[in-house]
Design goal:
CATH topology of chain B: Rossmann fold
Order of helices and strands of chain A: HHEHEEHEHEHEEEEEHEHEHHHHH
Structural class of chain A: alpha+beta
Helix content of chain A: 55-70%
Distance between the termini of chain B: 19 Å
Radius of gyration of chain A: 33 Å
Strand order of the largest sheet of chain A: 2-3-10-5-7-6
Number of helices of chain A: 13
Shape of chain B: globular
Helix content of chain B: 25-40%
Shape of chain A: elongated
Number of strands of chain A: 12
Largest interface: A-B, 24 and 24 residues
Strand order of the largest sheet of chain B: 6-7-8-3-9-10
Largest sheet of chain B: 6 strands, mixed
Order of helices and strands of chain B: EEEHEEHEHHHEHEHEE
Strand content of chain A: 15-25%
Strand content of chain B: 25-35%
CATH superfamily of chain B: P-loop containing nucleotide triphosphate hydrolases
CATH architecture of chain B: 3-Layer(aba) Sandwich
Structural class of chain B: alpha/beta
Radius of gyration of chain B: 17 Å
CATH class of chain B: Alpha Beta
Oligomer: heterodimer
Distance between the termini of chain A: 27 Å
Number of helices of chain B: 7
């Protein structure tokens, strides 16, 4: 039997029972749509978070105290490890030609008061370089400058939320806040940036690192934020940092250098797993759809037992019958796959229109994956009914009532 | 052309062995028109199935056109059925969703005959059984007699060596049945070999030769 003829026979048989065919295929349609949709959402989220990370400033390295596993992220120094100090940052900047900025960062929380109002929030001690290293932008006034860092001047730049909470609509510039026990003069307000990865830029207060040392009465840094001159120099810069710090720390590598790319990679891997899990859940519905196809094919084999007997009587070989039913099963699932792909793409396009908070990104691979998986499901679940059809004895099949 | 020697057929049903054919000898020559008569359960349909290569004998030898079919594979038997044997069944066995034309065309799906030739061949056999004008009708739009003519046309399509008919008039009124038998007679006059199974004497008398079966053996022969 020629392939075209087999296709025609399968089409005839499917079209002769349209409602049943459609209901059978519905499971596959839903499965394929779900696979495409969930992968799109997963990919969209991944892209979104990647962009958020990149928005923090590219070519950033962060040195944190303590030796952590590479993927461990930052953790605050414990007493067992040597602290990172202000001079470490200066030395790194001075010794490595690959490094554009090395910013000693001190972080703490403190009660900030103005007039009758107060707010407990993060206070971050940085240098003037932090502004360009992290792609920040200012709304009113200016950022901390070099001379203020050098002279340990008590000045501060407020995030939008802090400013609104404490100062309301009053002109913020020149206002005198109380941070801990010290007074600080407001010199600028950060532009609104919103929450990035749970880190609310709007709810921060920036002060010079030198001032933070005094206010928090500490030498140890939260981290050293490093901006490398170019992407190609990241590795070299890392190597420099390690050499410089190991020498200063008496041969001990009791610190960790994290790169933004590594952090992105870790996050990316987590999100890829998440996407995979979503796709896997959707794939289960495809398998359920496949079982539906198998079920209906078994019914079809039974209903058409006499037809099978007749076809064999007029010369159909076992493989002709096998092929006929297998093609029918695959056509059903492929048709479902195709419709599912169309609906999946359509819904993916419609999501940004109706739910703009949900990031989606249609990925071509998900379309292929879903389609070929559905076709594969058709083959897998079509084999059993088709074999059953092919193995029917012609004399019994012909007499089947 | 068809040569059966001591053909036996046992069925095993629920552990018990049932002897359906108990040593059948048969010779059919080209151009013969043989009617096999017998009550139901005599084994005549089983014999026809074995001759038609739809079933295999338990013992004995069967040569079809000089070929020992017992050593043939299932696929080879399918090919013999396709090219050398035409079946006509009591229940017509037409596919309800296909037109008469497509029903007749069915054996061609499993042959190597090129598409261009197919239409011509179908139209030819349709006219041989006298229902050319019904080609596009589906079985449920045809009378019983017309349906059986479609089935005969399908059996003729591949120019088989023999046509095997199992109670071809069993589901027809006597007038349609007579017409069907006239067709068989006409075909036999054109040289088509026919083996017919029936339990109706009137039908069997159309044949050139009648053989009687009972309990899996031939009783006698009459001409």
């Amino acid at each position: 039997m020629k392939a075209i003829e087999a296709l025609r026979t399968a089409t005839d048989s499917i079209l002769s029972n349209r409602v049943r065919a459609f209901l059978t295929v519905l499971g596959i349609i839903i499965g394929v749509t779900a696979v495409i949709l969930l992968i799109s959402i997963g990919e969209g989220t991944r892209q979104f978070i990647k962009n958020e990370f990149t928005g923090l400033g590219s070519n950033i390295l962060i040195v944190v105290p303590g030796k952590t596993a590479k993927e461990g992220g930052t953790h605050l120094g414990t007493s067992a490890v040597r602290k990172l100090v202000y001079d470490d940052a200066l030395l790194i900047k001075k010794r490595s030609r690959h490094i554009q900025y090395a910013i000693p960062v001190i972080a703490g929380t403190s009660l900030i008061k103005y007039g009758g109002r107060s707010r407990n929030t993060y206070v971050i001690g940085v240098t003037e370089d932090y502004f360009s290293a992290r792609n920040l932008s200012i709304d009113t006034g200016r950022f901390i400058n070099a001379s203020e860092v050098d002279s340990k001047r008590h000045v501060c730049v407020l995030g939008r939320t802090v400013k609104n909470e404490l100062l309301g609509d009053a002109n913020p510039l020149g206002a005198l806040l109380t941070i801990g026990d010290s007074k600080c003069r407001v010199i600028g307000i950060m532009a609104h940036k919103g929450v990035t990865l749970g880190f609310d830029i709007d709810d921060l207060v920036f002060i010079p690192t030198t001032a933070a040392k005094e206010i928090f009465d500490t030498d140890s840094l939260f981290n050293i934020t490093i901006k490398v001159r170019g992407e190609s120099e990241l590795e070299a810069a890392k190597k420099d940092i390690k050499e410089i710090l190991i020498r200063r720390h008496a041969g001990q590598e009791d610190f960790t250098v994290l790169s933004q790319d590594e952090m992105i990679a870790v996050m990316d891997r987590i999100l890829k797993i998440m996407t995979g899990v979503l796709a896997g859940i959707a794939a289960i519905s495809l398998i359920v759809g496949g079982i539906g196809i198998m079920n209906i094919m078994l019914v079809s084999v039974r209903e058409r037992t006499r037809e099978i007997g007749l076809r064999k009587a007029v010369g159909a070989k076992n493989r002709d019958i096998l092929r006929q039913f297998l093609i029918e099963a695959v056509m059903l699932s492929a048709a479902g796959g195709l419709i599912g792909v169309v609906i999946g793409i359509a819904v993916t396009w419609l999501i940004p229109v109706f739910m703009d908070f949900l990031p989606v990104k249609l990925s071509v691979w998900s379309i292929f994956l879903a389609f070929f998986f559905s076709a594969g499901v058709g083959i897998f679940f079509g084999v059993y009914p088709a074999r059953k059809a092919a193995s029917l004895e012609p004399i019994h099949a012909l007499r089947y009532e | 052309m068809i040569h059966l020697e001591n053909i036996r057929k046992d069925y095993v049903i629920g552990g018990a062995s049932l002897e359906v054919l108990k040593g059948i000898d048969l010779d059919v020559q080209k151009g013969d028109f043989l009617a096999v008569m017998g009550p139901s359960g005599s084994g005549k349909s089983t014999l026809l199935n074995i001759i038609g290569c739809l079933d295999r004998q338990t013992a004995g030898t069967y040569h079809f056109e000089g070929i020992d079919v017992s050593i043939k594979t299932d696929d080879e038997l399918a090919e013999i059925r396709n090219t050398k044997i035409g079946f006509v069944f009591q229940m017509f066995n037409l596919l309800p969703r296909f037109s008469a034309f497509k029903n007749i065309e069915l054996p061609l799906s499993y042959s190597n005959i090129p598409y261009e030739e197919r239409k011509e061949r179908v139209m030819e056999v349709l006219s041989r059984v006298g229902i050319s004008q019904r080609a596009s009708h589906k079985p449920n739009e045809l009378s019983g007699g017309e349906q059986q003519r479609v089935a005969i046309a399908r059996a003729l399509l591949m120019n088989p060596s023999v046509i095997l008919a199992d109670e071809p008039t069993g589901n027809l009124d006597s007038r349609s049945g007579g017409e069907i038998m006239d067709i068989f007679k006409g075909l036999n006059n054109e040289g088509v070999t026919i083996i017919l199974v029936t339990h109706e004497t009137a039908i069997a008398q159309t044949a050139k030769k009648i053989m009687f079966m009972k309990d899996g053996v031939f009783l006698n022969e009459s001409h």
